[in-house]
Amino acid sequence: MEKKKVVYQITRKKYRLVEVETEEQEELIKELNRDFEREDKRQKALRARYLSLEQMTENVGDTVADDSPDAEEIFIEKEHDSETKTLIHNAMQFLTARQREILIKSFWEGKTVREIGEESRLHYTTVSESYHAAIKKLKKVLQNTPTNRP
Questions:
Q1: Contact at 8 Å (CB) between 21 and 3?
Q2: Which residues lie across from 6 on neighbouring strands?
Q3: DSSP 109
Q4: pTM for the whole structure
Q5: Which end of the chain is more exposed for a tag (fewer CB within 10 A), N or C?
Q6: Which pLDDT tens digit goes with each residue over 67-108?
Q7: Where are the beta strands (DSSP E) in 1-118?
């Protein structure tokens, strides 16, 4: 290949003609230019996000609204979680031992029906049927359970 001149981008507004001797060198410079363009786009996006955050704080004033829950909301949420856990624990007492085991492995251990079947040495369809029967029974029990919440 004869010597060839290729444009090499140094900064956003500065370019330089570079003389290359092989196609590999030419491809390398083109790749460097693409990298520069990608980085430039990324920097522009970061600047835009930064500026939009600045504009948000200017519109709101010096303070940004705090959406985090206050102590009372946290207490109420914890109390609700505690009540829910108690209800579920009581409802699970109406299930068979196999159904409880399947639900625990599914929900708390994150296992699939097939994995539970392999562990329990049961066919996955048996596990699936037990799983669905347990869910159905839990729904029925929980619907018939009175709650203190409005």
A1: yes
A2: 18
A3: S
A4: 0.47
A5: C
A6: 777 788 888 888 888 888 888 888 889 999 999 999 999 988
A7: 4-9, 15-20
